[in-house]
């Protein structure tokens, strides 16, 4: 009796792989109303995509870059999960992961399409609909190495022109494939991104937004005294960021804050580390920022917070000395 090979299923075929895992990627609140095609975010994206090969949302942490890319992707595709794919670059990300490369299979190796080539082929087979590839942390990868020969053909004037991959296979980048990316302008790889995408992609600057922060606080009904103090801190630290860009604090950090405890948690588990790093060569500057943070809370609470911060800082110093 001859045995015929059974079709092998991947984790993605079963709906439990990376595609399924990232279906809601970049959305801080999956239950939020979706952005429609007439939303200003989508209108801006469509206008830019008529003139550029893609869009890079750039800005400091907590400014909604990934959220915006995700919402625009859903708007452009009618929230069709099969036409959106999410990828995150990192220092070890390779051409073989993104474009095409050999994968180990039983009995040897097999050439397999990466995310980009897969999306190109899917878009070519369905030219009436838009397909969107969202690249998070674009500046953390070596873009020239990852895109390879495809880099030139991302331009709007070169869409549809055939070119050969390293394997010798001929493909083209269809005009209905949209590329949205996010990056932190202070990452080490930004110069490489600028060189590769400077004239090919539009860059949309995402900055800390006082108005967005106020909206978050109104929705969460944060007590007025805390809200006023938080706004003062937000203004102060982002004013300092004009001369120390690493100190910029985005509004999204405070998205889920609704009381004093949740506000303290933002400092204790996120902001403290970001700002200590930003002011590592300016201890006086950090103390000023820390003082502004403590001023958000009533005096008696601020005193207990100050003691806790001092103990935490002292413990960290002892640990560092012992290590």
TrEMBL record:
Q: Which CDD domains match?
A: AAA
Annotated ranges, domain AAA+ ATPase: 51-211
InterPro entries per UniProt: AAA+_ATPase, ATPase_dyneun-rel_AAA, Methyl-DNA_Rec/Restrict_Enz, P-loop_NTPase
Q: Name one GO molecular function term.
A: ATP binding
Quick one: where's region Disordered? 300-323
Q: Under what name is this protein listed?
A: 5-methylcytosine-specific restriction enzyme B
Q: Which organism is it from?
A: Streptomyces misionensis
